[in-house]
């Protein structure tokens, strides 16, 4: 019981340390996508219950547009025709997938409670619990959690506190990697409560972002290969169940959107945007369009921006978001065929540019894109007046958050942690538990896969890798805590006995 109390105290202290960046900022950190998460849930609430909030202007406008065909039917065809379900027009606003309504529900609930600080508090407690439970296993300190105090340093020398303060599901990417390692290696050794914590955390991570779903799936594939080659005892069934939960959540969201709007949600063409920006996609498009291709992108070929982010999110004519809804749906539907055609056309070039993007993503650890709201390009006009006033009072909104502190520490702390892990692994290879070595290997694989997924399928951004790179200092401090074991003193010889 005493050990549990010490562990609980360390978790509470670490959670408080993780909230320091939000306190320095005078509030939580927002990102341009934050409003999309909230408005998605809000639109569902308006459609399902009629309850509206300060975020509901767009939802009301869209639902009004949907009601126009029904109104026209009543005036033109009488009561019988009006009773038929209205088919939404092709111009009905596109609902994008990839912005989880499940994470949006967390933001929406916090807003309903009156403060987004609730999100930061929840994320801090979950992160602190996961970090210390992971460290306890890696350090083999189940009975002496007081030895885990070095783990607290991670909150001060890495950017994990910024990920906790950010109103985005980013923090659940590293937590998904920890949960995968924890479940695979220690499931049979964990108590029921710990099993429940890691299972719920992994399922939540799978629901909160499709990128997490992909990274977890790739990790499971590697673990299956590892188990077959080495016959290592790994528990993968709970991880597979979390993947099913995540996939089921996406399917349920798609079915709900189709029922409400008449159209399935549309996933932005990330891979097509990446291929066009890297060159092979644009080359193929130029030739295909000149030869009479019917690809919808051919209508916009001369106006497509060079930058992939501009193509995806800008509002100009050649940008995805600037296209009419019906064209956006066609471009998204045609993406798979376009990607396969480009890959068949220039396979080596595509592989080369993807490897370059992955390498660039792997080494991007800065935090300016989340700590400086002006740099991030947050649209203040999309925020309700009360939320806007709170946002304007933060240092990030004023460009005064001391992000240089984290930027200066990122490289030396990460490299030092990596060097410490490699050195300890070499020196203590014969004494370090196999599970500890396996844990480090799984986390390193997760960090590499995060870079691969984000770098190859999207544009490399600092935010994508800085959200997971703090796992290296966490593991290094945990391994160090496990190596500082007291050597038991020899028992005193009994009186009158020869030594």
Using only C-alpha atoms, the radius of gyration works out to 26 Å
Task: List the helices and strands in order.
Answer: HHHHHHHHHHHHHHHHHHHHHHHH
Shape: globular
Cα distance spanning the termini:
39 Å
> What is the count of DSSP helices, taking H or I runs of 4+ residues?
24
Mean pLDDT across every amino acid position: 87
The overall strand count is 0
Description:
With 499 residues, this protein is mostly helical. The chain folds into 2 domains: 2-38 and 98-263 and 364-482, no CATH class; 270-345, no CATH class. The protein has helices spanning 2-18, 20-25, 34-49, 57-82, 101-113, 117-138, 153-157, 160-165, 172-186, 192-208, 210-230, 237-261, 270-278, 280-290, 308-313, 325-345, 347-362, 368-371, 373-376, 385-392, 404-427, 434-457, 462-469, 471-483. The longest helix has 26 residues, at 57-82. The two termini are 39 Å apart.
Question: Helices and strands in order, then pairings?
Answer:
Layout: H1 2-18, H2 20-25, H3 34-49, H4 57-82, H5 101-113, H6 117-138, H7 153-157, H8 160-165, H9 172-186, H10 192-208, H11 210-230, H12 237-261, H13 270-278, H14 280-290, H15 308-313, H16 325-345, H17 347-362, H18 368-371, H19 373-376, H20 385-392, H21 404-427, H22 434-457, H23 462-469, H24 471-483
Helix pairs in contact: 1-6, 3-4, 3-5, 6-9, 6-24, 9-10, 9-11, 9-22, 10-11, 10-12, 11-12, 11-22, 13-14, 17-22, 21-24, 22-23, 22-24
């Amino acid at each position: 019981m005493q050990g549990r109390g010490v562990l609980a105290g360390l978790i509470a202290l670490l959670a408080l340390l993780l909230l320091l960046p939000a306190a320095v900022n005078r509030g939580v950190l927002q990102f341009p996508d934050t409003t999309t998460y909230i408005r998605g849930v809000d639109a569902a609430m308006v459609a399902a219950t009629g309850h509206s909030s300060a975020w509901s202007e767009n939802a009301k406008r869209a639902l009004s547009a949907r009601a126009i065909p029904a109104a026209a039917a009543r005036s033109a065809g009488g009561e019988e025709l009006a009773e038929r379900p209205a088919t939404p027009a092709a111009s009905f606003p596109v609902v994008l997938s990839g912005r989880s309504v499940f994470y949006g529900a967390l933001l929406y609930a916090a807003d309903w409670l009156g403060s987004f600080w609730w999100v930061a508090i929840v994320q801090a407690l979950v992160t602190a619990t996961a970090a210390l439970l992971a460290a306890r296993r890696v350090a083999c300190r189940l009975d002496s959690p007081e030895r885990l105090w070095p783990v607290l340093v991670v909150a001060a020398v890495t950017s994990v506190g910024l990920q906790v303060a950010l109103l985005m599901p980013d923090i659940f990417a590293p937590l998904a990697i920890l949960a995968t390692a924890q479940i695979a290696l220690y499931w049979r050794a964990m108590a029921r409560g710990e099993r429940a914590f890691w299972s719920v955390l992994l399922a939540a991570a799978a629901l909160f972002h499709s990128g997490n779903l992909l990274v977890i799936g790739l990790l499971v594939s590697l673990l299956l290969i590892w188990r077959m080659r080495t016959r290592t005892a790994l528990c993968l069934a709970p991880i597979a169940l979390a993947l099913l939960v995540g996939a089921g959540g996406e399917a349920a969201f798609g079915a709900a959107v189709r029922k409400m709007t008449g159209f399935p949600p549309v996933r932005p063409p990330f891979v097509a945007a990446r291929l066009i920006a890297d060159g092979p996609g644009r080359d193929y498009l130029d030739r295909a369009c000149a030869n009479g291709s019917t690809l919808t992108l051919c209508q916009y070929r001369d106006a497509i921006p060079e930058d992939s982010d501009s193509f995806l999110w800008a509002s100009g004519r050649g940008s995805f978001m600037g296209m009419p809804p019906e064209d956006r749906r066609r471009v998204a539907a045609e993406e798979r065929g376009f990607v396969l055609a480009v890959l068949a056309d220039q396979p080596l070039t595509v592989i080369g540019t993807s490897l370059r993007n992955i390498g660039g993503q792997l080494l991007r650890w800065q935090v300016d894109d989340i700590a400086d709201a002006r740099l991030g390009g947050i649209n203040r006009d999309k925020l309700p007046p009360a939320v806007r006033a709170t946002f304007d009072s933060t240092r990030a909104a004023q460009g005064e958050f001391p992000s240089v502190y984290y930027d200066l520490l990122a490289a030396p702390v990460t490299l030092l942690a990596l060097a410490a892990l490699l050195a300890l692994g070499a020196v203590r290879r014969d004494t370090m538990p196999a599970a500890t070595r396996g844990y480090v290997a799984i986390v390193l694989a997760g960090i590499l896969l995060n870079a691969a997924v984000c770098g190859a399928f999207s544009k490399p951004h600092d935010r994508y890798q800085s959200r997971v790179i703090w796992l290296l200092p966490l593991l290094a401090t945990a391994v160090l805590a496990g190596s500082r074991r007291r050597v038991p003193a020899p028992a005193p010889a009994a009186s009158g006995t020869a030594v």
